[in-house]
Design a protein that fits this description.
The complex is a heterodimer of chains A (330) and B (329). With 330 residues, chain A is mostly helical. Chain A is built from 15 helices and four strands. A two-stranded antiparallel sheet of chain A has the order 1-2. Chain A has a two-stranded antiparallel sheet with strand order 3-4. Chain A is flat. The N terminus of chain A is likely disordered. Chain B is an all-alpha fold. Chain B contains 15 helices and two strands. In chain B, strands 1-2 form a two-stranded antiparallel sheet. In chain B, helix 6 runs antiparallel to helix 12. The N terminus of chain B is likely disordered. The chains are: A mainly alpha (330), B mainly alpha (329). Chains A and B meet through helix 2, helix 5, helix 6, helix 7 and helix 8 of A and helix 2, helix 3, helix 6, helix 7 and helix 8 of B.
């Protein structure tokens, strides 16, 4: 507070601060607030910093350790609180693409994510329209069923799915009656896009149900009077008017597919870019084939995470609204 | 309209398969139309979720032998699973039920390791998420960037999250292992192949990634609180802590409860992070056991564990939905 009398001021910066804090508790809350903020910033961003440190350190220096240098501070030797790179070798970021075609793995991931997003948007739009705008018997039960299915573990589906995608017969459950012979889908986009679509569709359905439900009936009626078909009204009027909701569903689906591990690692049986192995396969190749090239593992991870960093900064609002509206619904 | 008159023909007079389908659709009742539009959802979820779930259950009803599926045994496999007779089909050392109730016993049992993981990580995620949400709820310069930084871990691919923590704790490079080993939290050598240490690292990794998700849910709860309540409290002379204790916390408690329960269910599916940081034979989560026993050729064992997992999760979700009732939608 500015009213403190100079003659009363205790000695030392800490004592002075304490004195002022007692007179104005607001200061303590502010100090706590900034301390907590810095703590969360450091803990969330530190792993990224560590990847960068490892990526630019020449691999021969990594095994030795010694990332925490000792520094002289007020005459005493103390460990520096952050690891620092041992040397500087940005070449790792080039080698990442040379050792294996890492860009192809990333392209595969993008292709899978875009395909899944399109499928999910179309199917979830139809469902969102139905749940958001139509009244019909069974509505609540169906929504609950979709919600429940979305919480089942992928592990409960994986064994029969793998069998089908390997080209075995599809039997009616609990009988030996074969419905049809499946085509082999392992190592093709189909074996991943289908499970991804089923896995991530429920969240989009809930997001789009909310958004489509908010469009006034009058607008849809007007479009119908103008001569649009029922489906036309959905795709030409309701969907464009709910553009923020559609964008939210798209961003969340894209991120989820790009980040998925379970089916990505199981359905792409050989980690080769030519066999549609996504990002997961690329990074695991470095972990299993170049077991001591820690700088390459780190550099590959940095390259692989960049698209997500950009997406979070650009589409932050959409992610926040989607996660909160979708998840609180659930 | 003008284009139609220029064509000299009204839409309803045109013919062809597309027009016939459109006209048929226009005349459907609301209910039929609703179910027609839901058809793609039914096909997708039916073939990718419900059919495999039924087949998984079917597989679990046949005897497991070392050569393949045996004869029909009904619920026998489930009895075997809970009496420990199924453990020999699990890869590595893990058992299904804990052999002892020490840390070592708990983390080498598939069931208790999964429950322990879900409980501990969700507990810390809730506390940290609450802290992050309270910060994001303030108005300050640069809030947008701080929020982006807090969300970023949520958007990191599982495989890269795994690499981060693998590279932080790998004993030959990770600088974090020696100090934590000195504290007795981690095994000093072979850290990531020690069940207890690997479980610790995996829990830390999950807390790092998922706290942001909890933060966003709690933040939504915080922002729905009527700000007028705080003005009243200020006039009454309540301190910030009293405001939190008597206004904020009781009002967001229901949001937190639902978020915690659903997050716990999701946490029980843990698989990827284990596969990268350690290995499924060291840290035996339920999903891990399904995948490992399936790739060892033990389909009945895989089906039994998979269906047990699904049943546990299904029961929790069903009771939650019943408890929340219509509010859940």
């Amino acid at each position: 507070m500015a009213t403190i009398d100079d003659t009363d001021e205790p000695d030392g910066p800490l004592n002075r601060w304490v004195q002022r804090a007692i007179e104005d508790p607001e200061r303590v809350y502010r100090a706590l607030f900034y301390t907590a903020m810095i703590f969360f910033m450091v803990t969330t961003l530190f792993p990224f910093y560590w990847l960068l440190v490892l990526a630019v350190t020449p691999n021969s220096e990594i095994i030795g350790g010694g990332f925490i240098p000792e520094i002289e501070l007020f005459g005493a030797t103390v460990p520096f609180p952050l690891p620092v790179p041992q040397g500087f070798n940005p070449g790792a970021f080039v080698d990442v693409f040379r050792e294996i075609p890492f860009h192809l793995y990333m392209l595969n991931s993008f292709a899978l994510a875009v395909t899944t997003t399109i499928i999910v948007l179309v199917v979830a739009s139809l469902a969102g329209y139905v749940f958001g705008r139509l009244e019909f018997p069974g509505r609540a039960v169906l929504m609950l069923a979709i919600l429940a299915i979305s919480y089942f573990p992928p592990a409960a589906f994986v064994v029969p799915l793998y069998d089908i995608f390997a080209g075995n017969a599809v039997n009616i459950p609990f009988t030996d009656v074969a419905l049809f012979q499946s085509i082999e889908l392992l190592n093709t986009p189909g074996s991943m896009v289908l499970p991804f679509s089923a896995l991530f569709m429920p969240l989009s359905i809930f997001i789009l149900t909310t958004f489509y439900g908010q469009i006034p009936d009058g607008l849809e009626d007007a479009a119908r009077v103008e001569g649009t078909t029922r489906l036309g009204a959905l795709f030409r009027v309701i969907m464009p008017l709910s553009a923020p909701g559609v964008a939210t569903a798209a961003v969340l689906t894209f991120i989820s597919v790009y980040n998925e591990y379970f089916f990505s690692s199981i359905m792409a049986t050989s980690p080769q870019a030519g066999n549609w192995s996504p990002l997961v396969g690329g990074i695991l190749s470095y972990q299993t084939q170049y077991t001591t090239s820690f700088n390459l593992m780190a550099a590959a991870s940095v390259v692989g995470v960049l698209p997500m960093l950009i997406l979070v900064v650009v589409a932050q609002e959409r992610i926040v609204s989607g996660l909160t509206s979708g998840a609180l619904k659930e | 309209m003008s284009t139609e008159t220029a064509g000299g023909e009204r839409e309803s007079r045109r013919s062809g398969p597309l027009v016939r389908v459109t006209r048929w659709m226009e005349n459907l009742s609301d209910t039929t139309y609703a179910y027609l539009l839901l058809l793609p959802v039914f096909v997708l979820l039916g073939s990718i979720a419900i059919y495999p779930l039924l087949r998984t259950f079917e597989m679990s009803l046949f005897a497991q032998t070392f050569t393949g599926l045996g004869e029909f045994v009904g619920p026998g496999n489930y009895v075997d699973l809970f009496t420990g007779n199924m453990d020999r089909y699990l890869p590595g050392q893990p058992t299904f039920l804990p052999q002892s109730f020490g840390i070592q016993g708990l983390v080498t049992s598939a069931l208790t390791m999964t429950l322990l993981f879900a409980f501990v990580s969700v507990f810390f995620e809730t506390i940290i998420g609450m802290g992050q949400a309270l910060i994001l709820d303030q108005d300050f310069y640069g809030r947008r960037w701080i929020r982006a930084a807090i969300i970023i871990p949520w958007a990191v691919p599982v495989v890269i999250q795994g690499m981060m923590f693998y590279l932080m704790f790998q004993p030959s490079i990770g600088f974090l292992t020696p100090p934590l080993a000195d504290l007795g939290l981690l095994a000093p050598t072979n850290t990531l192949n020690d069940p207890a240490s690997a479980t610790f690292v995996i829990i830390v990794a999950d807390i790092w990634k998922t706290s942001a998700f909890m933060a966003l849910l709690i933040l939504a709860g915080l922002q729905s609180i009527d700000r007028g309540l705080y003005d009243v409290a200020k006039v009454a002379g309540a301190s910030k802590w009293q405001q939190f204790k008597h206004i904020t916390f009781p009002l967001i408690l229901p949001t937190i409860a639902v978020a915690v329960l659903f997050r716990s269910v999701a946490a029980m599916r843990v698989y990827g992070i284990i596969d990268i940081v350690s290995s499924c034979t060291v840290v035996p989560s339920l999903s891990c056991m399904v995948v490992e026993s399936f790739f060892s050729g033990f389909n009945a064992a895989a089906g039994t564990i998979a269906f047990t997992t699904a049943a546990i999760i299904g029961l929790v979700v069903m009771s939650l939905i019943l408890w929340q009732g219509e509010e859940a939608i």
